[in-house]
Amino acid sequence: MPKRDDKGFLAKTLINATAIYLTANLVEGIHISSFGTAIVAAIVLGLANALIKPVLLILSLPINVVTLGLFTLVINGILLMLVSMFTTGFIVSGLGSAIIGYIVISILSFLINVIL
What we know:
Elements: H1 9-26, E1 30-32, H2 35-51, H3 53-59, H4 61-66, H5 71-86, E2 90-92, H6 95-115
Antiparallel strand pairs: 1-2
Helix pairs in contact: 1-2, 1-6, 2-5, 5-6
Keywords: Membrane, Transmembrane, Transmembrane helix
Protein name: Phage holin family protein
Transmembrane segments: 30-48, 55-83, 89-115
């Protein structure tokens, strides 16, 4: 039986949007124009994680094995950069900022989920 998830799509999107918005204020090289833009970025990031990330993980499996999974950080950074390309008002300056940003987004999203 699948695990029951108490938080719906809207709640998850708002949590991720909040994490993205806060990350833009914490990480140099990541800029966002408004909270509305963060909501759009959260939706696009969710789609990228669902549709693109699995393919990238399979294609990068050999290098992921060699790096003991650390290459996944690079994939996450690339996804965040892709999201910035498709979201007007969301700018990620480089891969380093994207990797750090994705880590911060993940941590903030986790903490917000724990609190709520």
